[in-house]
Amino acid sequence: MKVLLAKHAGFCWGVVRAIEMSRSLAASGQRVYTDGPLIHNKQMTERLEAEGIQELGDYQSSADLSIDDPQDAITLVRAHGISPQRRAYLKSLGTQFKDATCPDVGIIAGKIRMHAKKGYATLVFGTPGHPEVIGLMGYTEGLGHVVETPQDVDALPDINGPLCFVSQSTMFTSDFEELAAYIKKRFPQTLVFDTICQATKDRQNDLDLFVKEQVDAIIVVGGYHSANTKKLALLAERKGLPCYHIESAQQLQEAPVAQQLAQFSCVGVTAGASTPEFIIEAVCQYLESLRGRENKGILA
Ligand code: SF4
What we know:
alpha/beta, Rossmann fold, 3 domains, four-stranded parallel beta sheet, flat
């Protein structure tokens, strides 16, 4: 079996940065709490917990949080970022406060805040309830709407003042462009900012390269709760090739996937931005072992 590994599979730089920050803080001997899971990957979360990095609570809950001996603990904001209101609340808990918001998310928040202060309403292309979207909406000064589809745009109230349109960092570029065009039909003066991050675009472009390389199937590795992995799998399906979203190499050995894999001579492997290298490597090693080890290439 020939295995082509996507050049941009696995951790993006924002996730690497957040994990490195959490590990270096934990190495100082203090308890580190993250506002929600630092990463949507069970195996990686277990490793981090063993190092003293744990989830503070349910970030979507309005329930009060409490931390024992807060002076000896650190609260760390995840790469997704948080709203200004949540930031103020977390700071009030009395722990040290550190921020691992991905700078690419920070740029989106900055654009929203700057325009909201000038009176702009904001449309955020994203998944309602996603932590990044919740955080971004906090910068809209009450003038924000989340839109995912043309129907969501149709359902908007009249907006008479200035309007800007941004995206959650991990959306599909083609969907963003289509929705921007649709929005402009109803609100022609809308300022459009393509804020999908480069890491997301790189992962999406790699899928096109798989098609160009004529792989027989695409395997997407990553947690079932990882929004960016689910999106990557959805986009892979749109390419019209057999697509398998798996969390571990073990699943490739189970029926009916194992039988289907036996028919392929070349597969492409990619992984969401929250998938650790050790899981990707285990998947590639298993695939290479099928019908004898041939080679593993990396997409150029
Ligand atoms: S997916 Fe993009 S915005 Fe999100 S953490 Fe990674 S680099 Fe940052």
